[in-house]
């Protein structure tokens, strides 16, 4: 049915929307790929460990193959990164069909959290929006000239890219009508 390499799974494989040169794409990928500034992330972890009396972890944050040699994802390094993550790219239609299948085979709550987009990265404006549940604060680990924001970004996605709407315009999981309880 689908060519999706990874299935969305809450807290493991996340759904990320990426806007580059006014062109939008969805990705379903391991969550660790999307901490844009891994140096900031390592520094924050080391500070936390120091506060509780543990030894520094250094820069031992796992380096995925797709991020090898790219410590900071910014407007320049994304050019190298995007071809590396192409295998995680998925169409709106594929996500919609997978969502429908999951709605038939899994609990609604599990499907809701697995299929809620976690991140929206707007490379054109140098912004990262996160809906990812804490404590993984992606918005805190963005390059210096970027904005990282934790807020509901669903309204920023163009209607034709909203896989959670079926062909009749029905919000399958009621994402956008949840009264801010996302």
What would you say this structure looks like, in words?
- The protein is an alpha/beta fold and about 180 residues long.
- It has one domain.
- About 25% of the residues lie in helices and about 15% in strands.
- It is built from four helices and six strands.
- The protein has helices at about 40-50, 80-85, 90-105, 110-115; strands spanning about 15-20, 25-30, 90, 120, 125-130, 145-150.
- The chain has a six-stranded mixed sheet.
- The longest helix has 14 residues, at about 40-50.
- It is globular, with a radius of gyration of 17 Å.
- The mean pLDDT is about 85.
Q: Please report the total strand number as a whole number.
A: 6
- The number of distinct structural domains comes to 1
Radius of gyration: 17 Å
Distance between the termini: 29 Å
By secondary-structure content and strand pairing, the structural class works out as: alpha/beta
Give the SSE string.
EEHHEHHEEE
Helix segment tally: 4
Mean pLDDT reading: 86
Low-confidence stretches at least 5 residues in length (pLDDT < 50)?
Answer: none
Widest sheet, order of strands: 3-2-1-4-5-6
- The helix content is 10-25%
What is the beta-strand fraction? 15-25%
Shape: globular
Largest sheet: 6 strands, mixed
Architecture blueprint of SSEs:
Blueprint: E1 13-20, E2 23-30, H1 38-51, H2 78-84, E3 89-90, H3 92-105, H4 108-115, E4 119-122, E5 127-130, E6 147-150
Parallel strand pairs: 1-4, 5-6
Antiparallel strand pairs: 1-2, 2-3, 4-5
């Amino acid at each position: 049915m689908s060519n999706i390499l990874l299935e969305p799974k809450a807290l493991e494989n996340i759904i990320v929307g990426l806007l580059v040169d006014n062109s939008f794409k969805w990705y379903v990928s391991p969550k660790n790929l999307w901490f844009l500034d891994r140096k900031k992330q390592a520094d924050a972890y080391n500070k936390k460990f120091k506060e509780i009396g543990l030894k520094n972890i250094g820069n031992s944050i796992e380096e995925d193959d797709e991020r090898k040699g790219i410590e900071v994802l910014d407007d320049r390094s994304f050019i190298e990164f995007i071809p590396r993550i192409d295998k995680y790219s998925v169409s709106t239609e594929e996500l919609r069909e997978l969502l429908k299948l999951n709605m038939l085979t899994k609990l609604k709550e599990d499907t809701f959290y697995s299929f809620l987009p976690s991140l929206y990265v707007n490379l054109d404006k140098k912004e990262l929006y996160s809906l990812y549940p804490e404590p993984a604060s992606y918005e805190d680990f963005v390059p210096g000239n970027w904005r990282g924001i934790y807020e509901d970004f669903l309204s920023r996605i163009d209607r034709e890219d909203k896989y959670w709407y079926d062909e009749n315009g029905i919000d399958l999981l009621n994402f956008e009508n949840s009264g801010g309880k996302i």
